[in-house]
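## Example record

The block below lists the input lines for one assembly entry, exactly as stored, with component labels intact.
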Amino acid sequence: MEMVNRPYAAAFEAYAIQHPEVLCLSADLTSSCEIDGFRDRHPEQFLSLGMAEQNMLSFAGGLGLAGFRPFLHSFGVFLYRRPYDQLMASIAYPRRKVRLMGFLPGITTPGGMTHQAIEDISVMRTIPNMTVLEAGDATEVESIVAEADTVDGPVYCRILRGSVPRLFATPLKIGQMRVLSEGEDVLVVTAGITTEEAIRARAALAAAGVSVRHLHLNTLKPFDAAQIVDHAAGVRHGVITLENHLVTGGIGSMVAEALAEAGLARRLIRLGLQDTYAHGGSRPYLMTHYGMDALSLVRAVERLTGQDTGIDEDALGAVRIDAVHSVLKAEAL
Amino acid sequence: MRNEKTTTEIAHGIRARVFEHTIRNNGGYLSQACSAAEQLAFLYNEGLNLGPSTMPMVPPPFGGVPSAANATYVTGAGYNGPFDAVHDRLFIAPAHYALVAYACLIEVGRLAPEGLEMFNKDGSSVEMIGAEHSPGMEVHNGTLGIGFSTAAGLAWGRKRLGHTGRVCVFMSDGEVQEGQTWEAVQAAAHHGIDNLWALMDVNRQQCDGAMDDVMTVGDIATKLRDFGAVVAECDAHDLGALRACAATPHPGRPLIVLAHSQPAQGMKSLMSRFPRLHYVRFKSEEERARMNHEIAAELGVAPVPLGVH
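Predicted structure tokens for the full assembly:
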């Protein structure tokens, strides 16, 4: 699999320098959000707001009022937990064209509870006027910059950083989910880093005779409920959602709401964080520990179909292990 | 745009209108009119460079919240004039001063007196806590402490765009209890945002009572200077001093004028309620009638006819 190094850094710089009304804002996590090079090369388009997110969000609302389109860079969790009031009053209500670039979504950080945005989708999707996007590979990280900037209003994006696999050849388009396989036994819905897990599980499941219909979501709001329902109606055993997030309020809840509102009776298994905080650790460890990895998906498929697939860790092949402490960022934070 | 009335007359008119409204409705933000009348009168009549209102004298009804489907949405900022490069912009940061701000808009000829009759009525845009769509408002500031940040962002943007118009925030001193205010001042100073200034009503009162009882804030002027602002201080009821403070040069930094005010200026009878001044609701018909006559006499206006009870 092709790995792309720092896809956000290159994509943001290429886009921003073509659009002078785009501003790059940072809250003391500039290199951690891969915009240090941009800061150094384009200081006139960069605003350091310091470790003060409440002000940054309202300030960005003011910039939006002046006609600018600020891109706010921080860890996802810092863009909504402390400054939630500012997010509502200064950005979401007045529909400012503020682009919230949330790095380290879910358990992609070893930083533990304070750093892990595990309820961001749940929070963001309930906010009127908000658009919510999530990048699942290097191509989507590259294309999310320009795509987010087309939104007539605020947008929150879950961004992957560092070394990111390239899974897709075509850019992210808002509202267009990807149908990655057209099976008839089980519908699997994933987004972000869980898509790679599902791709790995799918190959083993196919060998075991289970046919999986796999959807990858990059647009979480607006949510295409009708298409989800159509796909759910087309499978035999039911639906599994696998998300890098709490199962409450996120993709699992969205799918459940879609099925219920359509009156479509299908069993639904929601994989992800089950009403729990996570703790600090490597991504593979956390995904296994909290039941968000390929093997957890296989076991959920077995529960839905009632059939043992015989798939084990070995069958899922070599798991990609990221070094927690890489040369790119000594702290890994 | 300059009004034919003097700023002193406008300040008096603000007090009289808010007094009348409060007596008639048995409640209102009356103390805020006492403390802030000169400040708002000064801003609208002299201190700010505002163009003529672009909005109807009688405010339109509530037109819906901003949404992708609401194509005709407008804020109430048009009452302060057009959005162009040369005119100033004003945020009323303590949105519960709305009644006082509306009274000011009437006094300076930007709002019809009927506008105040729509105050806090269902379906009206003339809301009790000033909303974006309320006359004279441009952003939601009902959550205290966010106004100066938003203004700093707007001012930075206007500077980048080459606008000559400045951004002014009318603030309340209670907002210095919010951490965001300090984040905003340090950011405005760090980025040299000097087309930004604030006029702060330092009345030393907040919802629960006197600020010194609720949360001691110490020397606001020193703290603001330490965070990078240029600070000027004056008696809020001395227009000459207000003029001088507003003219303080502040190159490379925001200016914050601390206007030390009296929470019962012009209505000394209100002090019988001290420290319960944040929102005046009369405890009895007797108190209401007594205040009606005493304050009317102080203001030199007729008592409000209350009809038969």
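Confidence is low (pLDDT under 50) at residues 318-330 of chain A. The interface with chain B takes residues 47-50, 52, 54-55, 57-68, 85-86, 89-90, 93-95, 128-129, 152-153 of chain A (CB under 8 Å).
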